[in-house]
């Protein structure tokens, strides 16, 4: 979950970076439109001058404005290319982060499934252990009763003597034979 949260934060940061770049791009395009409007205003101003003055000033202004516009267009194209490159890189990183998030989620689901299976197996083993203990207790109890009956039968027979101390299984077997 921590890795997913981290990946989501990184995606949000990169998406905000993309939004910032796009707004800068929009601002540059607006500035270009503003320049075009200024040129139109200058052009309208020159329309009111005499034809010869107008020709000279228009030519000089147009050349100057063309140079300025070419410079601005070159700068904006350069910035736009950089921003487009950065946007592509960010989108690629976002895709990778999304893929990592999906992979992490799948791993978490597999881990949870494995954990459930292991827990189920552990519960089954505990149940079997309990059944085995119960069976062992029953067998031990039957064995002890059988042993006591064998001891009673051996030592209640004619000619047998009572044991002096606690008997081992081998002693009981010898006495029985």
Q: What topology emerges from the helices and strands here?
A:
Blueprint: H1 2-47, H2 51-155, H3 169-176
Global outline: rod-shaped
Please indicate the count of domains: 1
C-alpha end-to-end distance: 73 Å
Helix content: over 70%
User: How many β-strand stretches?
Assistant: 0
Strand content: under 5%
Number of distinct helices? 3
What would you report as the Rg, rounded to the nearest angstrom?
48 Å
- What about the largest sheet? none
Helix and strand pattern: HHH
Spans of at least 5 consecutive residues with low confidence: none
Give the rounded overall mean pLDDT.
Answer: 87
- Structure classification: mainly alpha
Quick recap:
The protein is an all-alpha fold and 177 residues long.
Structure description:
With 177 residues, the chain is mainly α. The chain has one domain. Helices cover 90% and strands 0% of the residues. The chain contains three helices and no strands. Helix 1 runs antiparallel to helix 2. The longest helix is centred in the middle third of the chain and has 105 residues. It is rod-shaped. The model has no long low-confidence stretch (mean pLDDT 87).
Keywords, separated by commas or semicolons:
177 residues, coiled coil, mainly alpha, CC-FHA_domain, CCD27 protein, 90% helix
């Amino acid at each position: 979950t921590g890795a997913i949260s981290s990946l989501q934060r990184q995606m949000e940061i990169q998406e905000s970076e993309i939004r910032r770049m796009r707004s800068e791009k929009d601002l540059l395009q607006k500035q270009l439109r503003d320049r075009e409007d200024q040129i139109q205003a200058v052009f309208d101003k020159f329309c009111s001058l005499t034809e010869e003055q107008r020709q000279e000033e228009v030519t000089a202004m147009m050349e100057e404005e063309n140079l300025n516009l070419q410079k601005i267009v070159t700068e904006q194209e350069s910035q736009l290319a950089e921003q487009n490159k950065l946007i592509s890189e960010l989108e690629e990183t976002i895709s990778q982060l999304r893929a990592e998030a999906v992979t992490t989620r799948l791993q978490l689901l597999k881990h949870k499934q494995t954990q459930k299976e292991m827990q189920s197996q552990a519960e089954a083993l505990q149940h079997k252990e309990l059944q085995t203990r119960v069976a062992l207790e029953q067998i031990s109890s039957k064995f002890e009763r059988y042993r006591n009956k064998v001891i009673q039968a051996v030592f209640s027979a004619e000619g047998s003597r009572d044991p002096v101390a606690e008997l081992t299984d081998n002693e009981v077997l010898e006495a029985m034979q």
